[in-house]
């Protein structure tokens, strides 16, 4: 199973772009990269997923280089409400023995 | 929002007492999971279920048991609660374990063992 490494915490200010990078050096061919967001006192929720290159939705963008050994979640012009924990998961798209593993995530604090 | 409820939402209990937490879903998803969340440890998987009466252990299963007699309900039992089991417990569901299927989480249960 691919292991992920991401920073424990990050700080930013309102209006700035925030980039959170996740390392997954042993990612497998069938693996997809998924990011979840967790607000205080709530369960995590899915925000974005990708396999390669770039994916964008109304919440974030996900950049995946050609070697897929890392990925970067980009949050444009953050606001105070983006303060949350962000989790990077890497898992087999075919299922198999994959069970989602969340780890500690990255705690993002957005300051006024 | 996915139809997932957890009960109770808050509970305070004494060391040594049995505790059962309930997760109920209305989505008819096959997979259900119990996680605990503690400061400095993130989300850790306790047990999961891949169908009625089919369950398996996660990374922190000691001291916990689960049961799933119906598709919609997944129960987590602490046979004899300890202070180390004070935590926030989250239930999640998914249609598949395949990574392309997202997990949906319940609102959580805050358990305090005194």
Question: How does this structure look, described?
Answer:
- The complex is a heterodimer of chains A (112) and B (114).
- By secondary structure, chain A is mainly β.
- Helices cover 0% and strands 48% of the residues of chain A.
- In chain A, strand 5 and strand 6 (61-64) form a beta hairpin.
- Chain B is built from no helices and eleven strands.
- Chain B has strands spanning 4-7, 10-13, 19-25, 31-38, 42-51, 54-57, 64-70, 73-78, 87-94, 104-105, 109-113.
- In chain B, strands 2, 4, 5, 6, 9, 10 and 11 form a seven-stranded mixed sheet that branches. A four-stranded antiparallel sheet of chain B has the order 1-3-8-7, with no helix packed on it.
- Chain B is globular.
- Chain B starts with a strand and ends with a strand.
- The interface between A and B is medium-sized, with 29 and 26 residues.
Strand order, main sheet of chain A: write it out: 1-9-8-3-4
Number of helices of chain B: 0
- Largest sheet composition of chain A: 5 strands, mixed
What portion of residues of chain B belong to β-strands?
A: over 45%
Largest interface, per-chain counts?
A: A-B, 29 and 26 residues
How much β-strand is present in the residues of chain A?
Answer: over 45%
């Amino acid at each position: 199973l691919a292991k992920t490494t991401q920073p424990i915490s990050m700080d930013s200010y309102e209006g700035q772009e925030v980039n959170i990078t996740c390392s997954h050096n042993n990612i497998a061919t069938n693996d997809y990269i998924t990011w979840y967001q967790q607000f205080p006192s709530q369960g995590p929720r899915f925000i974005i997923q990708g396999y390669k290159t770039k994916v964008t939705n109304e919440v974030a963008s996900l950049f995946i280089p050609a070697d897929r050994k890392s990925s970067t979640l980009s949050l444009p012009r953050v606001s105070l409400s983006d303060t949350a924990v962000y989790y990077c998961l890497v898992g087999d798209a075919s299922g198999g023995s994959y069970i989602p593993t969340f780890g500690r995530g990255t705690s993002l604090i957005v300051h006024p | 929002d996915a139809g997932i409820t957890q009960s109770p939402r808050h509970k305070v209990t004494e060391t040594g007492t049995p505790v059962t937490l309930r997760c109920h879903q209305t989505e008819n998803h096959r997979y259900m999971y119990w996680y605990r969340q503690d400061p400095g440890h993130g989300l850790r998987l306790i047990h999961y279920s891949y169908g009625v009466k089919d369950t398996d252990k996660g990374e922190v299963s000691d001291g916990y048991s689960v049961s799933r007699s119906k598709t919609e309900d997944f129960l987590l039992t602490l046979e004899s609660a300890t202070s180390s089991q004070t935590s926030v417990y989250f239930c999640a569901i998914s249609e598949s374990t395949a990574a392309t299927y997202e997990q949906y989480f319940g609102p959580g249960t805050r358990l305090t063992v005194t």
